[in-house]
Amino acid sequence: MPPVLKQARENKLVETALFLVIAIVLAVGLQAFVVKPYKIPSGSMEPTLHVGDRVLVNRFAHRILGHDPKIGDIVVFNPPAGADPSSPICGAADQGQGTGTPCSRPTPRKSKQSFIKRVVAVGGDSISIRGGSVYLNGKKANEPFAAACDPASGACDFPNPITVPKGYVFMMGDNRGNSDDSRFWGPVPDSWVIGEAFATYWPPSRIGGAG
To answer: Is 44 a catalytic residue?
Structure first.
């Protein structure tokens, strides 16, 4: 092979390798700071999101720009460590399932798990749950996305209101009778929110907005 052609071939290989390295770095950076995929692990967000659905999570707006979660947002977050046991632990021992009062204070340590739920109240809001429906500041919230709550689940009625602390959000699954959420382990600090789910990309039949 003539030296000129050999040099051109070597340059092309170096260029291709450099392109691949840059592409990998950009892909890793995109996932770390901007958009991250998330697979729905349970039925707690049905009928909005199904088991096995894959969604895209916008990390940029919250982590980089500092946008606070809003009521109605579907977000991925780290729950408190009180969500880890099979019987969740509330930071206020006299609250949670069976007490008539939703958990108002989480355990202090953050779980390594990541959950996906809907924001139903933010800091300063008063919230109670009756028949699976959220009552926000004394008024029943408009929640066409929520599934009916089976009273036998023990998750439908927390009629005694609490006030969500400033800088926290109260999370609930849309499947009110089958969701491990803030009712049992408390509000979540804004800083534990990873990002908002904004689109479903798999399976093809489910492509569209996340909720």
So the answer is: yes
Longest CA–CA separation in the chain, Å? 85
Which residue of the set 44, 128, 133, 179 is catalytic? Answer: 44
Confidence of residue 27 (pLDDT cuts 50, 70, 90): very low
Q: Which amino acid is it at 154? A: G
- AA identity, residue 67: H
Of the residues 36, 104, 111, 117, only one is catalytic, namely 117
Burial of 76 per CB tally in 10 Å (0-12, 13-18, 19+): buried
The mean-pLDDT minimum among 93-102, 162-171, 185-194 falls in 93-102
Per DSSP bridges, beta strands 188-189 and 139-140 are unpaired
Q: Is the pLDDT of residue 5 over 80?
A: no
* Beta carbons within 8 Å of 45's beta carbon, 6+ residues apart: 74, 116, 117, 118, 173, 174, 175, 179, 211
